[in-house]
Amino acid sequence: MSGALTDRFHITAHIGASPYHGVALFEPFTLDLPAESWTCLLGTSGAGKSTVLRLLAGLQAGVQGACRIEVSDGQTLDGRISYMAQQDLLTPWLSARDNVTLGDRLRGHTPDVARADALLAAAGLTDHRLHRPGQLSGGQRQRVALVRTLYEDRPLVLMDEPFSALDPVTRLKLQDLSAHMLAGRTVVLVTHDPLEALRLGDRVITLQGQPARPSAALTPAGTRPRTVTDPAILAQQGQLLASLRGQS
């Protein structure tokens, strides 16, 4: 365990225009990420959701003025981020278990095999823990990538559509697992699914327009993970769908 629960901080990210081929992707805006909260980013395809995540992760630092991050404890985010991309990015010659623990080995640490196996079991992958990615379905590969993200146990977790390849029942189970395992962390979740955002988010922000700008944050009632049959959540889902439809 990394001790992430004792590592609490507020993040303020100043997102610049982030020009791409000379065209501004965003109207400059500020994104506040309160400690231990889930912020869900919605928007139509191409709105810039994944770009925001990469900016937060420092993966587009070459774009001049793209993102300036302030952390309340005065430290940087180096070594404090776990990032799950849309692609599973599994190493093809390693087993599911070895993919989960790859970060430990790259850092010269002894992998916690028991913990990795426990997380794989929670994701329904016990029988596949020794299988290589080529032996797994797309949904199973995505679950391995999610388990790797949870295994890293960092205080800031960035996830880009982590449940998109899963069937509805497995999707709900993995949402519940993530909500449990990431308690006390600060999470930014990119999703196309309004109900998923409302189940998991403390705040739901929609990126809209060209260049994109964020909507005012919507705050779902209750405690995550929220039930999918909650009338208030279903009503807010309808509002978000109508907003997204208007954008497209």
Structure in words:
- It is a single chain.
- The protein has 248 residues and is an alpha/beta fold.
- The protein is built from eight helices and nine strands.
- The protein has a six-stranded mixed sheet with strand order 5-6-7-3-8-9, with helices on both faces. A three-stranded antiparallel sheet has the order 2-1-4, with helices on one face.
- Helix 6 (168-181) links the parallel strand 6 and strand 7 (186-190).
- Helix 4 packs across helix 5.
- It is globular and about 45 Å long.
- Mean pLDDT is 91; it is low at 1-5.
Please specify the SSE layout and strand pairing.
Blueprint lengths: L10 E5 L13 E5 L4 E5 L6 H9 L9 E5 L9 E4 L11 H5 L1 H5 L6 H10 L15 H15 L3 E5 L7 H14 L4 E5 L3 H7 L2 E6 L4 E2 L16 H17 L1
Parallel strand pairs: 3-7, 3-8, 5-6, 6-7
Antiparallel strand pairs: 1-2, 1-4, 8-9
Helices, by number, come to 8
Q: What overall geometry do the principal axes of the alpha carbons give? A: globular
Total number of β-strand segments? 9
Mean pLDDT: 91
Strand ordering within the main sheet: 5-6-7-3-8-9
Order of helices and strands: EEEHEEHHHHEHEHEEH
Radius of gyration: 18 Å
The biggest beta sheet reads: 6 strands, mixed
Taking pLDDT < 50 over at least 5 consecutive residues as the criterion, the unreliable ranges are 1-5
Structural class: alpha/beta
Beta-strand percentage range: 15-25%
Q: Which range best describes the helical content: under 10%, 10-25%, 25-40%, 40-55%, 55-70% or over 70%?
A: 25-40%
Span between N and C termini?
A: 43 Å
